[in-house]
Design brief:
Layout (H helix, E strand, L loop, with lengths): L3 E10 L2 E11 L4 E5 L6 H8 L7 E6 L2 E2 L4 H5 L2 E4 L11 H11 L4 H15 L12 H13 L5 E5 L7 H15 L4 E6 L2 H4 L4 E6 L2 E6 L1 H6 L4 E6 L3 H8 L6 E6 L2 E6 L6 H10 L6 E4 L4 H10 L1
Parallel strand pairs: 3-8, 3-9, 6-7, 7-8
Antiparallel strand pairs: 1-2, 1-4, 4-5, 9-10, 11-13, 11-14, 12-13
């Protein structure tokens, strides 16, 4: 039996469709990622699965419990880390942890083994007020509080937003440790690079799932030949690409332009000649491996 089973869940706010017939399953010990921009419906789905909101239609079960009928049983089995810091800023690090352990009828001593890799980094600051921690430390404390009752399912809604790159990497290292305990992890993130740390991901846009697969398989399914073009005049290049006679998709990527070609008989020299004929100067043009972000853009563009 999967830890999480979602069958055609939809959610409406008035005339707005936040979710449209979402379906997927998450196994025990799996890190499953929801990847998409703001407004994709990730938080709405978390709220339904955490029994904080009712779905408009569809069904979802956690550990065999229905999210509507069995919400009291579900709340004992899950840990939830929302996108904003939701602990008590005036309590110390240790006081927050003790509060959440007591609230769930557990104890710090009982489950210290589960959180020890995280708590080991927090212990030197255990007397500091939670509100005075750095962004990365706040998220580590919130993760400890979400795990202290040893949940079987962990929900993480954009847990690394606003956190520095080093702390983000450390946070994801911790998730690999957590999943080895058999805990199912459902995590959302706007950072495409974090998607590769998941076992499987669902790419979402406007309340719908575009595709579900492993990060590796999604990249392998990329249909075009992707090239990176470096130019000092990216806006002029954008205008020029509107006249490109070769079927392609293109978009700025920092100081680069990513261009994907789909013709079976694509000739790179033909494209180079087009750029030169239109007065475009570039310092670098090479074929590259697509990232999850490139795959997302391709799928959204159809």
């Amino acid at each position: 039996m999967p830890a999480i089973s979602i069958d055609k869940i939809s959610k409406r706010y008035g005339k707005v469709n936040a979710l449209t017939e979402i379906s997927f399953e998450v196994e025990e010990g799996e890190v499953f990622g929801l990847i998409g921009p703001d407004g994709a419906g990730k938080t709405s789905l978390f709220n339904i699965l955490a029994t904080l909101q009712l779905p408009t239609s569809g069904k979802a079960t956690l550990l065999g419990y229905d999210v509507v009928a069995d919400y009291k049983k579900i709340r004992k089995e899950i840990g939830y880390l929302p996108g904003v810091f939701s602990l008590y800023p005036d309590l110390s690090v240790f006081e927050n942890l003790r509060f959440f352990a007591t609230m769930y009828g557990s104890s710090i001593k009982e489950n210290m083994r589960l959180i020890f890799p995280i708590w080991n980094q927090l212990a030197p600051f255990k007397s500091r007020q939670a509100g005075r921690l750095s962004g990365g430390m706040k998220q580590k404390l919130a993760l400890c509080c979400a795990l202290i009752h040893k949940p079987r399912i962990l929900f993480l809604d954009e847990p690394t937003t606003g956190v520095d790159p080093v702390s983000r990497r450390e946070f994801w290292d911790l998730l690999n440790t957590i999943k080895k305990q058999g805990i199912a992890v459902l995590v959302s993130t706007p950072y495409m690079d974090e998607a590769t740390r998941c076992d499987r991901i669902a790419l979402m846009k406007e309340g719908k799932i575009i595709t579900i697969n492993t990060p590796t398989q999604i990249i392998e399914n990329y249909k075009g030949k992707l090239y990176s073009l470096k130019s000092g005049a990216i806006f002029g290049l954008l205008d020029c690409m509107q006249k490109c006679p070769i079927r392609c998709k293109y978009y700025p990527y920092g100081e680069f332009m990513h261009v994907s070609f789909y013709e079976a008989d694509f000739d790179l020299q033909h494209f180079i000649d087009f750029l030169h004929a239109n007065g475009q100067v570039f310092s670098e043009l090479m074929q590259i491996q697509p990232t999850i972000e490139d795959c997302f853009i391709e799928l959204v563009a159809g």
